Amino acid sequence: MSLLATKGRLCPQSGASHRLAEQATTARFILAGKPLPRVEDSLRIGELVRSAVMSRSRKVLGEDQIPPNFSGHDMPAGNRHRHAFYLPSDSNSDGRIDRIVLHVPDGMDKNQQRVLAGLERLWSGNGAKWRLVLEEIGDERVGGALTHSCAIWTSVTPYLHPWHVKKRFTLEDQIRRECRERGLPEPIHLERLNEIRVGSRLCGPIRFQRFRARRRNPPDRHGSFWRLTFPEPISGPLALGFGAHFGLGLFIAQTRDP
Known about the structure:
By secondary structure, the protein is an alpha+beta fold. The protein contains four helices and 14 strands. Strand 6 and strand 7 (129-138) form a beta hairpin. The longest helix is centred in the N-terminal third of the chain and has 20 residues, at 42-61. It starts with a strand and ends in a 5-residue tail after the last strand. Mean pLDDT is 89; it is low at 1-17. InterPro entries: Cas_GSU0054. This is Type I-U CRISPR-associated protein Cas5/Cas6.
């Protein structure tokens, strides 16, 4: 989709449609500004997007009316990981975040979609700011490569295991358990990767921001990269481990040979 700058604002070109659906699961935003944040800062950007959604929800719906599927609070018992994933994405593989995919497995009604349609800016504590433009909203297909159906998925940000590793509860065991808890088949092959390519750079896990602001740190302080092979194609997004709702532990469908 092409864009027009109007009075300093980045807007969809005339003719682009953002018709609200009766029920949608996924929204995709353009992130614009100079410089764009690095993929290594995905966690920070994911947290900023959530903060922006919380703020906009208060203005549109009321101070005490923030939807649980946006905040992750007060979700029904047993409804694990059905609230929003705020997933930064590098759509052109240049190492910079230029898209945000917001995915809510349990769906968003029209009022919640209106909240997202009004998002325009991201600000960080160091003074950086970026423009947000809603590019598309609809079902899972809106998420592009993050929501493809595929049997092989490869890390794009580090996976931080959420539980302590034990002799009979290895890293691989934890990944399998998380997949089961998401209603996914267990991977039949798990390959650990030392590095992944981010734009023109080869990066190890410690190059990424891995800890949330003002939050308790996970048992895993290093992180790891993986290539997971499932017995059948699964649909994304696939994000596992600590910080998965903010861009950590994110995988992308591998549609070509590595």
